[in-house]
Amino acid sequence: MAASDDDALQVLSGDDQDDGAYSSDFEEEEADSGEEEADLDEEEGDFDDEDEEDEDSDEEDGAADGNVEANDSANHEEIREALLDYIGNGNAGADGDEESDDREAADESDSSEDEAPPRNTVGEIPLEFYKDEEHIGYDRAGRKLKKQARKDQLDSFLDRSDDPKDWHKVYDEYNDEYVELTKEEMGMISRIRQGKLPHAEVDAYQPYVDWFDWDGKGHPLSNAPEPKRRFIPSKWEAKKVVKLVRALRKGWIKLDKPKEKPRFYLMWGDDLKVNEKTANGLAYIPAPKAKLPGHEESYNPPVEYIPSEEEINSYQLMYEEDRPKFIPKKFDSLRHVPAYAEFIKEIFERCLDLYLCPRTRKKRLNIDPDSLLPKLPKPKDLQPYPTTCFLEYKGHTGAVSSISADPTGEWLLSGSRDGTVRVWEVQTGRCKKVWDMGGSVFCVAWNPNPALPVVAIAVSNDVVLLDPEVGDEEVQLNIAKLLAVQPSTSEPTENTPLIGWKRHDKLRGIQLSHQQNVVRVSWHNKGDYFVSVSPDGNNRAVLVHQLSKQQSQNPFRKHHGRVADVLFHPARPFMFVATKMHVRVYNLAKQELSKKLITGLQEISSMALHSGGDNLILGSKGAKLCWFDMDLSVKPYKTIKNHKEDINAVAFHKSYPLFASCSDDLSTHVFHGMVYSDLMQNPLIVPLKILHGHQKGERSPSGSSMLQSYPATSPGVSDIKFHPTQPWLFTAGADSVIKLFCN
Amino acid sequence: MDAGERQVQVRFTTRLGSDLRVEATAFSLPVHLNRYGLSQIINTLLALDGPRPFDFLFDGELIRTTLEQLYLSKNLSAESILVLEYILAVGPPELQSSQPEKDWVSAVNGVNPSLILSGSYDSFARAWFPDGTCGSVLKGHSDAITSIAVAGSSNDTDLDVITSSKDKTLRLWKVPLKPSSSTLSSVRIFKGHAASVQCVAANPSNTQVCSGSWDSTIKLWKIDSEDEDNEDEQALKKRKLDGAKQSIAQVTAFTTHKEHTQCVAALEWPEDRYIFSASWDHSFRQWDVETSINTLTMTCSKALHCLSVGGEGSLLVATGGADPVLRIWDTRMPGTVVPVLQLTSHTSWISSCKWHRQSPKHLLTSSYDGTVKMWDIRSKVPLQTVEAHKDKVLCTDWWREDTVVSGGADCEFKLFKYTPIEWL
């Protein structure tokens, strides 16, 4: 083996160093397979032959090994091509080397400074070999070159002195002649002596030209020239390739089998592969599967599936669509099963279903319905609010139409359709006083000024001011003075007073006779002014009265619709006039319309103002409740449809954040209505409690027929008022009972 | 007795007299026994002539469940011996008399053992004698009487009575103690409140009176000294001679407390040093009389209508108000928000509450639900409930330790007598 090794080395040494390297590797690998050594030598000796040999060996292998598949050839081909490419390159590289040698020679000749070839051809030998000879060497034709005769010192001196160019002559010992240096050569010598570069045209310090394109690279790359290894084939790759070739040839590498097409497949299987059909944006929805036959449809179904005679008969009584489509039947053998009569029909129907029923993908919103609800605090945390009825004020014989609480909270005033007005003691439910008004009472209002306990009562066409006799002596005197009708001081005025302030016929009080039914009276917070509303009074629908001067005035020339309710702003000179659809806010100081609230309600029935004066609630005939934040907008901040029937009254608590509405559906709804002093924060409205307890009253007024039935009495809860200091709610019902709900 | 039933060891103790004492050995009793069963056992052990009901105390609480439930609730070991103290039970009261009045009875007072005072919405106050006869009628107010206080007596023949009324005044009367029917007029009138006077209370030494009103003030008045009374008697005689036109002596308040923000609904003057007041502004306060300082304020969540000071060492305050819960507060814990005890059994507002004058454990309440209940604070369940009136009960009080007087909106004035009981 060693000998062959050496041989190989010798063979390759002259050729290429690289080849030698991998041939030696080969040798090591082939060590065990001695039989192929000869081949190997051949192979390595001549790479060009490899193609044929490879093919040969493949064929041989194929013949020898029946397992080798035909498909292998394709892979083989590929590898071999790669190999050939490589080898070709290698050869090309070798060729290239030769070429480059030639080129080098040419370069050398080009760069040679000798214009003419040297006369002597002895080569670079020590010239002392010819010291004793007559000649100095041989010319190209092989003739001896005779040494020239030596000039003696004198002659040479003379020559020098004769010849001005002698000083730039140099003796060439090799050719035995004097060479005259040219001007350039002289310059060159002088530059060398000065320590400069010999060639004047070479600039050693020329400006650096940056050949690398730095723009956009962002990474400082080396500007080192490409290394040589980039241009020469890799030894490692060549080794790898040879190994692969070898392994292929030996059959050590098995290539993958081609995939066989399955012989059996699901006929409708790809129906389910929705992905394939929807991949490129097609909205494909697979058809619903037809129901597979079960035990029922068997020709020999189990006994329990076969319906009895009665059952079959009962099917006849059923509706066509409820009747079972298929009635299981037993056959002795499959041969006896007749053709299925419904087959064509069913297939047809299914086809109809499939192409006539458009299938759409339902987009299901994945939202938790609870998350859509607003996050409200629990009613438990918003206590106190009225919850339970502990006290009833009984005594009226007709529907209670209106209630009003004394500002201190000790008394409650109520007016009823039975024609009486009562004063109740809140704590015990004791009726302190009964006034028979002689007419249906529409509205009662206790003066909100605690120093002036006077009540205003709207009885049919009149407003009556009475003294409830609850103040101390001083107050009583004051009231007696107020309620004494002043003799009109300016009698001879041409225009008759708007309203006559008269002494009441029976009771100790003042009577203000209006032309039409008065349905609302409402006091100003200071207790001197009050306003009366008679919806049928046309341009005299709203009249403002002053108690201290006993004067009335008509602030409006006309109204835009039927006036339902009027309220004074608690602190500022504003008046809220609710007509059927809108609420107008008038500035009384400037005498102009300051705002018009667009309610969107069917018909406003009642109105209540928050103690701050900026929030208003409206109850409507359409069972809707509106909250207006007047700083926010002229549209409702919130509209709540809480009742089933018309809302009769709404009320705000003076100090607690509570409001309530009552309705003909016999219920009263209590809400938490927090108004924040921070203008940026919207009011918080939380429903708290529904209060029941009132009975259904009669819609038409009870009592004698002389009592006017206008406006129609509500059958449910007709009025509500909060206790001025406690979180309690009074509700007045058409069942003639007033209830007190406490926290 | 079921043989399979579980038995517990019970030992009875008592502080009753020796005739009602059983031997202090442990008995094995079935667990299903309740108060009635235990009472029966005591009765058999004592072999009394007639059956007497007993109540049983365990750990200071009255037993209102079966023994089994007691064991479970107290987490007792079934092997431990249960020590039960028994006391005489309070039997159901008997209606002694029912007097119809002309109007709602709004105030009763049973401080004096020889007569009962009642005030009515017809503006009269009346003195009733134990036999059920109406003695004097106190005429003078122009509106409903709201409260009556007794300010002792200057002599043996008559009693100083102060009434408060919705007519914003208080009046002092001298009510004769001996049974005689007469119409009295007031001796003195206390003027100064701006609104209905809701309550009145006299100090224990009977020299001063305090009154609370809807004008949210508490006013303190002096009852005049005896020699003046004598003069007054003379004046009274004079007045009788001169006719009714003679004006009555007027008294003005010497101190006014204005800290309450709403109606002062109830007052009590348990000791000369301090006053308790309850108000609709959800608070009850203690006032030092000499310095006129509000020394204690406790706040409840509901408006208060009545208040009573009592219990061990007069340290507990019972308040009732605009809800059916009777709350008992400890004045030694001024910062607390939660009452010591909440007694719930009524179904409507509590109109009045009164501690027993001797017993620190017994309490009387009346409610708008028409019942009068007696409570033992050792139990969360009322001892006795009386359907006293057909309508709201407006007032109730103890009289002579074992009798309860009550007045209501059904215009009846009733007396209920409990079986003689040893309260302590």
SSE arrangement:
The complex is a heterodimer of chains A (about 750) and B (about 425).
Chain A: H1 2-15, H2 17-30, H3 37-45, H4 50-64, H5 72-111, E1 135-138, E2 144-146, H6 153-162, E3 169-172, E4 177-180, H7 183-193, H8 235-250, H9 274-278, H10 309-317, H11 343-356, H12 369-372, E5 388-394, E6 400-405, E7 411-416, E8 420-425, E9 430-436, E10 441-446, E11 455-459, E12 462-466, H13 473-482, E13 501-503, E14 509-513, E15 520-523, E16 529-533, E17 542-546, E18 551-553, E19 565-568, E20 574-578, E21 582-587, E22 592-598, E23 604-609, E24 615-620, E25 625-629, E26 638-640, E27 647-652, E28 658-663, E29 668-674, E30 684-691, E31 717-722, E32 729-733, E33 737-742
Antiparallel strand pairs in A: 1-2, 3-4, 5-33, 6-7, 7-8, 8-9, 10-11, 11-12, 12-14, 13-14, 15-16, 16-17, 17-18, 19-20, 20-21, 21-22, 23-24, 24-25, 25-26, 27-28, 28-29, 29-30, 31-32, 32-33
Helix pairs in contact in A: 1-2, 5-8
Chain B: E1 7-14, E2 26-30, H1 35-46, E3 54-58, E4 61-62, H2 67-74, E5 82-88, E6 94-100, E7 105-109, E8 116-120, E9 125-128, E10 134-139, E11 145-150, E12 158-165, E13 169-176, E14 183-185, E15 188-191, E16 197-202, E17 208-213, E18 218-222, H3 226-242, E19 249-251, E20 255-257, E21 264-268, E22 274-279, E23 283-288, E24 293-299, E25 304-310, E26 316-321, E27 323-330, E28 341-344, E29 350-355, E30 362-367, E31 372-376, E32 384-386, E33 393-399, E34 403-408, E35 412-417
Give your account of this protein's structure.
The complex is a heterodimer of chains A (743) and B (424). Chain A is of the alpha+beta class and 743 residues long. In chain A, the strands form nine sheets. In chain A, strands 10-11-12-14-13 form a five-stranded antiparallel β-sheet, with no helix packed on it. A four-stranded antiparallel β-sheet of chain A has the order 5-33-32-31, with no helix packed on it. In chain A, a hairpin with a 5-residue loop joins β19 (565-568) and β20. The model of chain A is unreliable at 1-73, 87-113, 490-494 and 700-709 (pLDDT under 50). By secondary structure, chain B is mainly β. Helices cover 9% and strands 46% of the residues of chain B. Chain B has a five-stranded mixed β-sheet, with helices on one face. In chain B, strands 7-8-9-10-14 form a five-stranded mixed β-sheet, with no helix packed on it. In chain B, strands 11-12-13-15-19 form a five-stranded mixed β-sheet, with no helix packed on it. Chain B is globular. Mean pLDDT of chain B is 82; it is low at 225-232 and 242-246. The interface between A and B is medium-sized, with 20 and 28 residues.
